[in-house]
Amino acid sequence: MRLLARTRRLHWPFSPARKHLRLALFVSLLLAAAFGHAQTAMLDTPAGRALRAWLDAFNSGDRAKVEAYIKTFDPQQSVERMMGFHDQTGGFDLVSIESSEPLLIKFRVKEKAGSTVAIGSIQIKDAQSGVVDSFSLRAIPPGAVVENLRLDAAERQRVIDGVAKNLKESYVYPDLAQKMEDAIRAHQRRGEYDAITDPDVFASRLTKDLQAVSHDKHLSVNYSPVKLPPEGENPSQEQQAQFRKMMERTNCSFEKVEVLPRNIGYLKFNAFPDPTICGPTVVAAMNFLAHVDAIIFDLRENSGGDPKMVAMVSSYLFDKSTHLNDLYNRKEDFTTQYWSLPYVPGARWLTSLHLF
Fold it and tell me: Is-contact 132 73, C-beta < 8 A?
């Protein structure tokens, strides 16, 4: 529509060059219209309707609409998480439909508040219910190439063998690791994975089957549509700068800090990010709450993160260096201890603690 309005405002005298330019603009309009119709057709499926409903609810920023979407389409979603994500991104514009099947749609979106482009996938349980079985959305690093892979039997076997190998080498409970391997191989023998050709769907299914045995929400199988750097390779300076910019733009996942009635402090943060980047955010938040009588730490939407950040936040609650926890690496057989810091910028807070 903007392009059409622009051509209407231009009044070119006739010439062969201008004629060809106007013809090119006209053809571009036809192609854009055809693409729009194609996208509309791709959205007219159970998966497409779920995508349309998610975009409408998410982009509205309206809690009631988000709640209605979750109730109808995706009961596993969190209202608070969706609302917080909307505040970070400003919503999304649909850029393209990458592929479309009745129960699976892959798409590309661009955030309204910035330049980040993301690749997404929605898998529906069945056409009758229209309920989302799995949803993924991943930012695409600048310059990265997205691969649209299809799995065959050999590739599924390679993934299953890789999962089993990692469980045996690294999972902290060897007996439970063996039970998880036995479970997914039993699903494989029964042919339950044979029809899965999409990597996102396969990763989601393996995650559910592993968690059904372990009940471990930290354990998951993930698929990246872009090539990942070799294991152990440090990120480039450009990648580090991009990550720092993203952290700063989202205020390091620290969503709200305030003093409630009766001098009760409230701090909501949704991750424990790298303290070398986000340490100043912690210092500012904890010093703002330095003189309250109690603090509520709202971790309901917190997805975890760096144990060094856990130690930094905790350090404001202890008057001396205190042992917090240990992390055991079974593959390399060593334990890392984490202690509260002997020094923190500003005042420590040492009255009472409430975790919600």
Answer: yes
Say whether pLDDT at 7 is over 50. no
Q: Are residues 60 and 168 in the same domain?
A: no
Nearest Cα to Cα of residue 57 among 76, 37, 72, 36: 72
Q: What is the pLDDT of residue 196?
A: 94
For the chain, give the percent of residues with pLDDT over 70: 86
Assigned token pair, 191: 């042919």
Cα end-to-end distance, the chain, whole Å: 50
Count of domains observed in the chain: 3
Query: Is pLDDT above 70 for 240?
Result: yes
Are residues 180 and 79 part of one domain? Answer: no
Query: 116 and 8 in one domain?
Result: yes
Q: Which residues pair with 297 in a beta bridge?
A: 267, 355
Can you tell me the distance from the alpha carbon of 194 to that of 152, in angstroms, rounded to the nearest whole number? 8
Q: Give the whole-angstrom CA distance, residue 51 versus residue 295.
A: 39
**Between 242 and 76, whose confidence is greater?**
76
- Tokens in use for 156? 């599924």
**Within a domain: residue 285?**
yes
pLDDT surpassing 80 at residue 95: yes
Whether 322 and 278 map to the same domain: the answer is: yes
Q: Is this prediction's pTM over 0.70? A: yes
- Judge whether 220 lies within some domain: no
Q: What is the pLDDT of residues 123-181, one digit of tens each?
A: 999 999 999 999 999 888 877 788 888 999 999 999 999 999 999 999 999 999 999 99
Q: How far apart are CA 211 and CA 127, in angstroms?
A: 25
In single-letter form, the type of residue at position 212 comes to A
Question: What gap in Å lies between CA 150 and CA 201, rounded to an integer?
Answer: 11
Decide: residue 263, CB within 10 A, 0-12 exposed, 13-18 middle, 19+ buried.
Answer: exposed
What value does the mean pLDDT take over residues 234-252?
A: 80
Q: Quick one: tokens of 272?
A: 């424990």
Range of the domain at 202: 153-214
C-alpha separations of 270 from 138, 210, 253, 321 in Å: 18, 25, 5, 25
Tokens of 96: 């393209």
